[in-house]
Amino acid sequence: MRGKWIKVIPLEGFTEDRFTFEYDGEPIVVFKTEQGFFALLDECSHDDARLSGGVLVEPCQVQCPKHKALFDLKSGKNLSPPAFSPLKTFPVKIEGEYLWVLVDG
């Protein structure tokens, strides 16, 4: 697996169901669900809306706040129109007391 693991946030600091950050100009959102943590590009593939402002839909989906497209948090796959392209996802791990994300790099 290519890329670089970056330390994103202490687990105790993850108080909401999502956390956003930027790495190398890319907006990334990490969602916390009952099924674990999932990181993906924080940009709808349909119209550049921020998915971090969307609604979590179980099991493991996020709905875009702008045009209501659904995406799978695990795979980034687009599940409904108007989005017709998947989202870039990033592997996540918990090591020690921190959440880490594998970014390009």
Describe the protein.
This protein has 105 residues and is mostly beta strands. The chain has one domain: Rieske Iron-sulfur Protein (3-layer Sandwich). The protein has no helices and ten strands. The strands form three sheets. Strands 2-3-4-8 form a four-stranded antiparallel beta sheet, with no helix packed on it. A three-stranded antiparallel beta sheet has the order 1-10-9, with no helix packed on it. A hairpin with a 2-residue loop joins strand 2 (18-23) and strand 3 (26-33).
The CATH homologous superfamily is named Rieske [2Fe-2S] iron-sulphur domain
Biggest sheet strand order reads 2-3-4-8
| Average pLDDT over all residues | 93
Multimer state = single chain
Tally of individual helices = 0
Write down how many β-strands occur, each being a DSSP E stretch of 2 or more residues.
10
Portion in helices: under 10%
Largest sheet: 4 strands, antiparallel
Cα-based radius of gyration, to the nearest Å: 13 Å
Structural class from helices and strands? mainly beta
Taken from the alpha-carbon principal axes, the silhouette is globular
Q: Give me the strand/helix succession.
A: EEEEEEEEEE
Just give the CATH class.
Mainly Beta
